[in-house]
Amino acid sequence: xxxxxxxxxxxxxVVAAGIxxxxxxxxxxxxxxPASDPSGEWSKPPAGAVPDYQLGGAYEPAAEVGIVGxxxxxxxxxxxxxxxxxxxxQTQPGEFDTWDADLLLHRDGEVFFDPDWPDEALLDTxxxxxxxxxxxxxxxxxxxxxxxxxxAVEFDNLDTYTRSDGxxxxxxxxxxxxxxxxxxxxxxxxxxxxxxxxxxxxLRERAGFDFAVTEECAAYGxxxxxxEVYGDAVIDIEYTDELPRPxxxxxxxxxxxxxxxxxxxxxxxxxxxxxxxxxxxG
Length: 282
Description:
Blueprint: H1 6-9, H2 13-23, E1 50-53, E2 65-71, E3 81-87, E4 106-107, E5 110-111, H3 128-148, E6 152-156, H4 170-186, E7 190-194, H5 200-207, E8 211-215, H6 223-230, E9 234-239, H7 247-252, E10 259-263, E11 277-279
Parallel strand pairs: 1-2, 2-3, 3-6, 6-7, 7-8, 8-9, 9-10
Antiparallel strand pairs: 4-5, 10-11
């Protein structure tokens, strides 16, 4: 099988081989991955560093911030650990037409859209051939994150199988996730699990994720599911519109990750009305 992009071809041979095995659905259980690559080519986010999540627009981070997440279309924040956001399992708004029609999940002859994000179509991960073609497109983005200077990449919507009316399975998405992680490591990037608390253990053990980015784990009582697997390598974003208790109380809760930030739901910039940025550092 040929992935067909220059970005993929320049991955180390052993990484490319691992990607092809994963796409074929042959990823097996392995020992937990190391905290960092022995060669020093990639590393996890700094433990307990103050995060900011800037998917709605890039701006200069506050002085206390040590981790910044930005979309793959943005430049990384200078001087901090930078995480590149990639929507790896469904289409990004405005990019629907960049995908071949047969790579989009269809139900009853119609494209299947995320019930909560109706402008995002689920990608069809149900066959090795489709996973290979999806990976060919996404791995170019992963390489772009590395070339831009990001330190890590997070992969969103790992749990599309739970919203597919049974058309997709965890094994389908796990095979593709393993390919993404292998590509990230081959490009010198740490790989972050995004959400999917119930699958944290298997995603780390079998796909090889290094850390987790979670939204509202404190609000939904899921933080322990991540910290039990990733320890202090968990970055949590809470949102103002669904706080069950004051953010200050969440900060002192021993179940909450050390790296946690409160943001507005739309992830606005400081120039926008409604922008919120609050950290546990004060």
